[in-house]
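Request: Have a read of the protein record below and say how the chain folds.
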Amino acid sequence: MTGVAIAAIANRDVVIRHGGARMFYRETVLDNGVTVLTESLDSVRSVALGIWFSVGSRDESPAEAGMSHFMEHMMFKGTPTRSAAEISEAFDRLGAELNAFTSKEYTCYYSRVVDEHLPTALEILSDMVGNALLADDACQREREVVIEEIARMEDTPDDRIHELFSRTLWPEHPIGLPILGNRETVGGFDHEAAVEFRTRHYLTGNCVVAAAGSVDHDALVELVRTHLLLPQGPRSDRPAAESPSTGRLTVLTKETEQTHICYGASCLNARHADRFTLAVIDTVLGGGMSSRLFQEIREKKGLAYAVFSFHALYQDTGQFTVYAGTRPGNAEQVVGLIKTEIERLLTSGLTAEELSRAKESIKGTLVLGLESTRNRMTRLGKNAVTNGELLSVDEVMERVDAVDLAATERVAAETLAGERVLALIGPHSADDVAHLVG
């Protein structure tokens, strides 16, 4: 790696230093398979700590859809030595943040805490994920909580449209299923199902402990070795997610004030060398207020309040999506404008000025995000738990700067010139909008 010195220090311990700066990453893989990653920062007194597991909604069978997210809830509901209330009170007493989140590919339990309280935070988090009781009465209560969460999502069409789009893009693979699951599956979750799921997935090989801030790597390794006692097992395999190459349409007919639109295609995976080029394309097309979509659809024509594009990259696939919300009578025009801007991108490419502006925007967003210890911890944990490529900030900037106009033309054609997917929520029938696909 350019400008980076790597020195082995013990077993699989690695130190990565960037340009002589004090910021550095360290990695240790314990004998049992748990990975510990840290980034030490001299300028802060806090630590962001996360325990990550390589399990998400894409790892579920149809009958257990939503179980990863349900387990996230259940880990807070008590252990043999702590009740749910005592867990919350302990972190309040530390003045710490405690939370968790689930995605399609991972689950993370994290805390942000003053450095002197890191040992306590790590011990409690380890107790939660390693020893949760998963009691039947708690499962019964939490099933109702999650079903309420599902109901809220279903009443929020600008959230639901993204789940609908994913299912349209991957109709035959669990990566297309809602992270929350559905009422039928969640309604059947009990102690036995939760224990069985934990036994399969909450293994040492699936676990990464990441921390950023005022943290001593060696001390954290010893804390993990002492407190994080999980069943030993390798990193779980997951089936590949391939999107069919035919155009598809999904319409959820609903009496809404706006039509919610997602339009896009499958794209690169999270380790693909062209992902930085894709980020530039995304930024120019719909990544901010100066983007083509925002300027054309909102600023010039006033057809939407929210319009943007984004790309989500997974271990073996990805999605490139444009979202817009507009009044039903404007839906056809908005979809047409989205398609027109994509075609203009494919036929005319980017301008040199757009390329330069997008690069600076991406780099600025990266650097500003690193003001947060939580964001730094997330970079470490997410990349490690998904077998991603852990790059220094300088390396990311170098790869962004290396993007040229020829690369954007090639990647745009490879990503957006083929069949695309359209999902709509609004007062429309599939027959009414079938002509908009393509």
User: Anything to note?
Assistant: Confidence is low (pLDDT under 50) at residues 1-12, 17-23. The CA atoms of residues 205 and 234 lie 4 Å apart. The two ends are 42 Å apart (CA to CA). The chain has two domains: 4-227, 248-436.
